[in-house]
Amino acid sequence: MAPITQTLPMTLSPALDFDQKAASELGTSLSSLYVQATPFAHIVIDDFLQDELIASICSHFPVEPTHNETLYERGYKGQRKRQISPNECDPYLKSVFNAFNSAPMLQFLEHLTGIDGLIPDPYFTGGGLHETKSGGYLGVHSDFRLNKKLNIERRLNIIIYLNENWQEAYGGNLELWDPGMKTCLKKVLPVYNRCVIFNTDKDSNHGHPEPLTTPEHITRKSIALYYYTASAGAIDPAQRNKTHYKPRPKDRLSLKYYINKLLKKKN
C-alpha cells in the first residue's frame, strides 16, 4: 500500500490547537486501510503535520546533549543512536509532545485502529526524539509489551520522520517483516513529514537494520510515540517488558552477528 496524504488537524496559530471532532473523523476515514494492511495493522501517511508545525519542531530539535539522554552503541540492538526525552527539552517541544498525548490525538488513534481506551505515556519510556548517525542502525525487533512503571500494555507506535531532503541512497528504511522473520514485506523511506502508525503485537517485526550511508553531518531524526491500554484484570506477569530482537535470514548465516551478540551480552 502506497503512502496516503493527510494532515492531522493540529495547527500552531495562534498557539497549538487540536480539533478533536476533526481528528476523530480523520481516524474513521482511514480505519479500513489501517486494519487491512499487512504484514500487521499499520498505515503510512505523508504530510502528516502542518508545515509550520513540523518546521518548528525541527528548528527546536536539540543539537547539544540533553540531561539524561540515552546513547546506543549496542550493535544489532541499536548503534550510533541517541534517544532524547521530551521532558528534558525546551518548553516549546514539551508543549508539542503534550499535544501528542492529548485527548484529540487519542481520539484520532482510537478511531483509526479500533483500539479503545488508549493511554499515553507521560514519561515517554523509550520514546521521544530519536537521532541516528551515519553508520547507525536498529535491528529488526518486536517491542516490549509491558510498561512496568505504569503496569499497562503497549498497543501502538507512531513514528514521524523529520528528515528534510532525505535521499534514497542514504538508506534508513523502516522494514516490516513477516511473523516468521523470513521475508521483509515492506520498506518505508524516512522522508520528511512521513508518519508510520502500527500495532505493537508480539509479531510486529520492524526495524532499520541496514547501516545508514549518510554523510557524517546528516542524521536520521524522528519522533517516537507509544500508546497503551489498561487490562480489565491483572497484567500477565509473563508479558514481555523487554524488546525482542530477531535476526534476519542473512544474520543467521553471519558469524559476525553472533560474535557481536555475545560481546554485547558480556558488557
UniProtKB/TrEMBL annotation:
Organism per entry: Pseudomonas yamanorum
Question: Domain Prolyl 4-hydroxylase alpha subunit Fe(2+) 2OG dioxygenase spans what residues?
Answer: 129-228
What is the protein name given in its UniProt record?
A: 2OG-Fe(II) oxygenase
Query: What InterPro entries is this protein classified in?
Result: Pro_4_hyd_alph_FE2OG_OXY (IPR044862)
Q: What is the lineage of its organism?
A: Bacteria, Pseudomonadati, Pseudomonadota, Gammaproteobacteria, Pseudomonadales
- Pfam families (alphabetical): 2OG-FeII_Oxy_3 (PF13640)
